[in-house]
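Narrative progress, year one. The postdoctoral researcher (J.K.) led the effort to move from monomer predictions toward full complexes, under supervision of the PI. The following entry was the first complex the group processed end to end, covering 1510 residues in total.
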Amino acid sequence: MSQVEKRAGLLRRTSSSKKPLKEKVVLMYDEIFAKEDPAKNNPRFWDELFLMKVNLEYLESKLESVDGEEVQRIQDNINSLFHHCVQALGEEHQIKVVNALQTLCALFRGVHQKNKSASGFDIINMLMGFDKAEQRMKDLMERLDSLLCGDGSESLKSLCLKLLLCLVTVTDNISQNTILEYVMINSIFEAILQILSDVSSRGQHGYDAVVLLALLVNYRKYESVNPYIVKLSIVDDEPTLDGMGMVVHQALTEYNRQYKDKEEENQGGFFSTLTSMVGSMFIADADEKLSVQTNEAILLALYEAVHLNRNFITVLAQSHPEIDIATTPTPPTRPHPQHHLAPLMNNPELPLDPNLQTSNLLITFLKYASIVMQDTKDEHRLNSARLCLIILTCIAEDQYADAFLHDDNMNFRVNLHRMPMRHRKKAVDKNIPSRPLVCAVLDLMVEFIVTHMMKDFPMDLYLRCVQIIHKLLCYQKKCRIRLHYTWRELWSALINLLKFLLSNETTLLAKHNIFHLALLVVNLFNMFITYGDTFLPTSNSYDELYYEIVRMHQVFDNLYCMVLRVSTNTGQWKEAASKVTHALVNVRAIINHFNPKIESYAAVNHISQLSEEQVLEVVRSNYDTLTLKLQDGLDQFERYSEQPKEAAFFKELVRSISLNVRKNVSLNTLSQDVLLKEFSTIS
Amino acid sequence: MREGRHVTSSLHTCTDEQPVSLSNIHSQCVNEGPGELSLVIDAEVAQRACQEVLQKVRKSIFTIASVLPLSLLQVEVDVGGSQNGAGPEPALSVTIVKPAQIQIREVEDDPGSVKSARRRQRHNPSKQSWLLRLFESKLFDVSMAISYLHNSKEPGVQAYIGNRLFSFPHDDVDFYLPQLLNMYIHMDEDVGDAIKPYVVHRCRQSISFSLQCAWLLGAYSSDMHISTQRHSRGTKLRKLILSDELKPAGARARRDPLALTPFCPAVSGSGEHGLSPSKRTHQRSKSDATVSISLSSNLKRTASNPKVESSQDEDSSSSSDSLEFETGPPVRLAPQREFIKSLMGIGKRLATLPTKEQKTQRLISELSLLNHKLPARVWLPTAAFDHHVVRVPHTQAVVLNSKDKAPYLIYVEVLECENFETSSVPIRIPENRIRSTRSVENLPDCGMTAEQRAGSFSTVPNYDNDDEAWSVDDIGELQVELPELHTNSCDNISQFSVDSITSLESKEPVFIAAGDIRRRLSEQLAQTPTTFKRDPEDPSAVALKEPWEEKVRRIREGSPYGHLPNWRLLSVIVKCGDDLRQELLAFQVLQQLQSIWEQERVPLWIKPYKILVLSADSGMIEPVVNAVSLHQVKKHSQLSLLDYFLQEHGSPTTEAFLSAQRNFVQSCAGYSLICYLLQVKDRHNGNILLDAEGHIIHIDFGFILSSSPKNLGFETSAFKLTTEFVDVMGGPDGDMFNYYKMLMLQGLIAARKHMDRVLQIVEIMQQGSQLPCFHGSSTMRGLKERFHMSLTEEQLQLLVDQLVDGSMRSLTTKLYDGFQYLTNGIM
């Protein structure tokens, strides 16, 4: 007790120096923490309490300092406080509502802070009392719901969302937050959607709403029925889904913009030393603004939307200039013919900036991914990169998404960010042609493949990357889409990857099953070799494939030697390696078939170094004597499934997000001077 | 005689035996604008007047000029009666009523006015009777009516023809609408008075006619001086139409439910808020989901007709009596006007962007915004059937090649309907509806079984039974329709590998020859219809090259409305900043010539494409499908025209090539004549299209008759006939070339025979026009001379030979192409 008083005193001293006089509200808190019912002597106690400015720190520290013994004593009073908070939310007097919301925040946080190890049930008991908990939480959620959906002050809505975020993130592991069970029963899903569907409220609260939704969806995701998952999966209201997409879009765009500014700034300063720059130029001064951590929640929301809600896929392709577009706000009260016409007449004038590129969520996401994937050393970046690839996996598996990725009429210039590297010049942005979006996805994959061959090999990311390419190829084969893409870049990237695996065999084998990755890569080549007729854009490209394989035959030869060696020895990799030997059969057939032909051609024509055209000529004229073996299941893939493989990753990710959100909520929201000012003028 | 307080009912008495036509009579009985809506004539007086008039008619025919129309009406009754044995038609009753009304006017309102007296004097009975015979005859068609309306100075004749218009089929008169309105605007009062009742009558009947009139009136008034324009008749009528006061007479006849229902304005009005469905308001999405799901279940499978708007509409239309008193802004015409305005707005904004690529992207995003407002009670006026626009597949839109303006081509998905004014607007199906059914069932990881789900909340419909056939699913289930190419086993494996390979019972390895793969690749590449390579600087080439059928199929597959049986795809070119009045004139002439040639059985082929004039500097064009410009052909294929024909249609002896060649010749002959007669200039390869069947189609009639581009004196030849064209025809000595010349001769003879039908169209439009094609005083004379009425057929043949030779040898054509290449990059 005395310690608390001291702290309170210290706090006081900052504002008015000498007298250790307590604020009225602090005195009232003390009364609550006494044994007696505070309303006993003062029937208007609760009314008065919520008229006082909340002293969050005092209340929280008071709660924290309650000992196990005392808990029993004061539980009635705390229950009562909680009860009155909930009741105050229904008050007309907005100051009371604000204070009640803040008090609730403090209650949730204080009680959890104190009882980190305690079971969720104890916490519920302490806050609300077991017998009344259900009713109290029902009331609370209903009040919050009506505040969020009502016409009330925007600041109030914001505070409601903060309270919810605060409640959702009080525990490190969201699934251990038993109170959320009541949030599951008393869903506020609809309120969140409403916020997202309305333009103005989306602008102000969209971010919080999306983060809240992403977190709620992850509550006991794998153990029980989470109604938020089910509800999110069936939303099909376009404005709402658009709204959600817009929030994600804006958050990612903002990050991309900041990154670009930063990059330009740095380039200006270090232009002379540009050549000496290697990689990671921003990681050193981990700027808070550029932290990817803040976007983990948004990325998670994007993932959940893409993964759970198939309708959301259309939002990805919804093209719009980079502004917030009004979604026909129609007052619901008066259905009148003119209302519909109004938006038609004032068609929102889009800004006429010729430099403004039309964009969509997918493009923004790809750009974002290209930045995040540049460096994966930092744990958060690694997580973000992984999540980006998971999202791309979901997209690549989706029929509709594939359709618009390959839509020849939807051409875009996508400026992916490329890591500055010593051996290559930075691509000039302007030369990027306008192409179907799938080209950008493939570019991103190729870019990742060539830039991450390092000691600390991100095997997991490589696997995802190669699988995404595979899924796209399967779609193209299936639908006979002949994409005009420079496949050669992909082929040479993949061959280089094999080369890297070979040269670092021993180090890599210590940690990873490199044979699995090698198998996937070889099978990509098999896709091209056996099914190239269904999706290659020109007959020439098939010749080029053979050229590339023959040209780089050494890599395949070495790979074959290596896998043969491993598969003949007994060891843990025996089986994995032998699969690769089988997969290599066609590549080896090609090499064995054409190499002698090329050599004899050179000998006959007395040429030491054949030109590409000459080799291609040899290839073209010798197809007929080559027989290939058709391999099983080349165009089959394992569909993405979150459980069980990814469950651990998402658990950790959600934990990290929770911590981050909690930190930010506590930092910037609960000093509500502005808010109080607003209401003091209203009331 | 309940409503016996106004004109309508007084006239009603005349047509007592035809109560069904009441609304018709209503709508046209007041022909002097809204001011006279309140005109009240005592029923008995009117009835007496009618009878008086009828008696007079019986007694003394043809004596008094102003009775002329009335006398005719007798004849009309007979003719009409014999034509429509089934019973009196509305149009028929109209002819009865109209003159009667005029008579009433003259008798009741100003019996002794100077004007009517003058009329009486001027008419020569014998001439009238002669004319009358013609007018009575079955040969008298709209074309003649328009001609007499234009040429006759007799107010009586004009008034008669004004009345006679009511008896012609709407479509026939609609063809001459530009002429009618131009006469209304620019000719004297009598003609105007004769035309107006008809126009007003039609406007009351039809929204689309109203808008059509308003647009044309605006466009053709624009050449007047600004001060006179403001007070001109045309402007006034336009205002009247746009004020939307020319509603169907429903408001007055409201008590008569039969006449009321089809034209009740409240129905169309309520349709408007019906198309912002309640879900767009911010309701809870849970209920949204269920609402839309229940709708979709209504739609599925049996959805032969779009779902009628929700009960909300019916409520408001049933309470339309109260709406009647509201004096809100007009809603009858508004949606369509707004739709057109948005399209024009897009065009204007596009024009400010520098590159084609930016324009295209911008166009796509603008259209995707527009999509949010659809479906609505809007339609494409260029279409031939009634429909509602439901969606603009925005990614398909392309910006067309133009130097400084930004015309663009959009495809529009519509649902055909009975009548776009009265049929309900289709309900919106969200973009993603087509796939909505997959939501939960594919989520093994959301940790619940179907039972759990069904039990866990009542609001979530059970998706498991949902068998919506049109939900497209993932790659694995995707069905691709491919042409059967080969039946050898390898190919089957390649195509159906998913099924075949995994369940490979026999462990025997399958071998394929690399050569086969390579061969299949090149064969399939050759088999796929040749497409042009995408070029950001010429985005329209690819879009236009794609066969129309294929495009329709593709767009239909991707559309949430595609499953509806009345789904159709239309396309339209939106032009903003271009005057299409000359195009419209050319369209009319082409159509006239086409029908003349058809009538005379001359196998000339031309393709008039529909033009919609919206104002003096904007409009829409119906694109020619399956056609690309010669410029695009040459640029993308890098072949000569003949080689391109060989590539597209096969070798010179094949059936396909021969029929393409015949098409080419017939269309060449047709357009050569058109170019000669109309003096079509600016014939570079960008303005000549080639369709998939080998026809050429000339587009862009910006320079016709007296105007020529920049007056450089280029293009002196009669028409464009390059050696490339002649090569396709098989050279100057071939049979096809002779056939070409013969066709031209036949075509010219046929056209000469019906010269008046062509001249009339042009002549009327010259009235009051500042269009460059009418520049100078010799336009009509020149046009007439080119029909060479005085020549014998032998002389005509000589003339054709001369024209052809001249055009072939013409250096200027070549020069002009070179000039175009230098200035516009057109090959």
